[in-house]
Design goal:
By secondary structure, the chain is of the alpha+beta class. Helix content is 27%, strand content 36%. The chain has a six-stranded mixed sheet. The structure holds a DNA duplex.
Length: 135
DNA sequence: GCCAACGTTGGC
DNA sequence: GCCAACGTTGGC
């Protein structure tokens, strides 16, 4: 089972919004590298939900409930979307500063390439972050 | 609000 | 097909 990280500005769509909605179509990704990752997501894969701009922390875990399909918000039909559902909020959100300060996370894709909105997380990185979150 | 990183666009 | 110009994202 692969693991991933997605970013969202909480002003636009927060983890609380996802909990309220029960599930949501993760669309609007317009970057090829991010789109490749969306296409690689499998049903049941778990995803860290990160708040960008405000919060700057991983705040919850979500899961893939529908694999990649054509993004309904892309008229050109070039990009894909997936559907995500909430799993659980993290007891202690893990901030970007915390992740940067942990040598075990030095290779984390979202740190290496900060603008990437969908990125892979290795099993070791996943375990490290959940441990930091007290989960 | 600024700026660095990076992707995309368009002229040649 | 190269590369400069420009737009966007996201941390600070």
């Amino acid at each position: 089972m692969a693991h991933w990280l997605v970013k969202s500005e909480p002003n636009t769509y927060s983890f609380a919004d996802l909990q309220r909605d029960g599930k949501t179509v993760w669309d609007g990704v317009r970057n090829n590298a991010a789109a490749l990752h969306l296409k690689a997501m499998k049903l049941g894969d778990e995803v860290l939900f990160y708040h960008s701009q405000e919060g700057l922390a991983v705040v919850g875990v979500a899961k893939v409930v529908e694999e990649a399909f054509l993004d309904p918000s892309d008229p050109a039909g070039r990009f894909v979307a997936v559907e995500l559902a909430p799993v659980r909020p993290l007891p202690n959100p893990v901030t970007l500063a915390d992740m940067k300060a942990n040598p075990a996370l030095a290779g984390l894709e979202m740190i290496r390439q900060s603008r990437l909105s969908v990125s892979p997380v290795s099993d070791d990185q996943w375990a490290t972050i959940l441990k930091m979150a007290g989960a």
